[in-house]
Amino acid sequence: MSKGSAQQYDNFGSNFRNTIKQISNPNFTVLADVFNACNAELWHSRKGINSATSFKVPIINNKPRISEQEARFIMAIFFDRQKVPFSVEYPTSEKYIQKGISPSSARVDLVVDPEQDQQINVEMKTGPVSLKAESKERIRKDIEKFVKEKYDGAWYHTLHTVQNNSITNLCEAYFTLLKDHIEKEMIQTNTSSFDYSVLFHVCVIKHGFSIQRMIRLHEIIDNSNAIDDFMNFEYTVSRNELLSIDFPPAWEVLRNDNAR
Fold first, then answer.
1. Which residue stretches of 48-112 are H helix?
2. Of 31, 97, 113, 193, which one has the greatest count of Cβ atoms within 10 A?
3. Hey, what's the torsion of the CAs at 155, 250, 22, 119, to 10 degrees?
4. Per-residue pLDDT tens digits of the chain, which is 260 residues long
5. What pLDDT sits at residue 218?
6. How wide is the angle at C-alpha 130 spanned by C-alphas 125 and 131, nearest 5°?
7. Taking Cα atoms as reference points, which of 200, 182, 116, 100 lies closest to residue 145?
8. Rounded CA gap, 41 and 70, in Å?
9. 3-class SS at 26?
């Protein structure tokens, strides 16, 4: 699949592709490439460059509207091109109390290969996440669905712009909540293992780069230093540019050439 003007840094991601091949679900490789292709489309829409699809991002107040909906529509085009079965707003098998007091079925933003052994539940979010409780609540309910549904999962998060702590805060909030829900689920279900994986992906629009890595959920429980290991990265940005970036090989880092 073409990645448009997205270019991989040569010194990052060497372990990412090896890891993704070792996981028994081949749909992760497809999904990682679809995420990268979607990034290129979103980056192009901001610059007004001709894109690889016929989908046009709406322009509101002279600015492109880039939200979870735009990403989902673009991904659907790429899945269809590759003849990969998918569904959107897919009902969960478990019931949740997310609004009101009565448990009910929730929805998964996008599902790859629904009702098959290789199903992947994809959740999409947009906007910054801080370490404050009310901000973390924006992503907590979707992380709870990841854990309780007991399928492989993927998280695609779009940030319009970043400061030097934006990705760090998002990752810390995400990984901490993920660990909390796994531990809670293991206690409630009296299980000792959690053999599922999650593809974690962040796309930054204005600065034109993305990061992604695989997470084996059992590693979060088995390794007491797992979250610190996941957070072992550095980057610096100015108002408009990515100035420097240093991520371990477990992360794949892509950059939009046209953002420079």
1. 68-81
2. 31
3. 0
4. 544 444 554 445 568 988 998 898 999 999 999 999 999 999 888 776 767 888 888 878 877 788 899 999 999 999 999 999 999 999 998 988 766 677 888 999 999 999 899 999 999 999 999 999 999 999 999 999 989 998 999 999 999 999 999 999 999 999 999 999 999 999 999 987 788 999 999 999 999 999 999 999 988 888 888 888 888 999 999 988 999 999 988 999 998 866 55
5. 87
6. 120
7. 182
8. 10
9. coil
Q: Which residues contact 164 (CB under 8 A, 6 or more apart)?
A: 235, 236, 237
3-state secondary structure of 48: coil
CA 202 to CA 213: how far, in whole Å?
10
Tokens 């408009």, located at residue: 240
Smallest Cα–Cα separation from 111: which of 66, 158, 157, 152?
Answer: 152
Structure tokens, 34: 């679809």
Q: How far apart are CA 136 and CA 127, in angstroms?
A: 12
Rounded Cα distance, 99 and 109, in Å: 17
Sequence-ordered list of residues with C-beta below 8 angstroms from that of 136, at least 6 positions apart, any chain: 129, 130, 173, 177
Residue spans of the domains in the chain: they are 6-94+105-259
Tell me how far CA of residue 10 lies from CA of 2, 15, 132, 135, 247, in angstroms.
17, 12, 36, 35, 12
Q: Tell me the C-alpha distance between 60 and 245, whole Å.
A: 32
Measured distance CA(77)–CA(8) in Å, rounded: 23
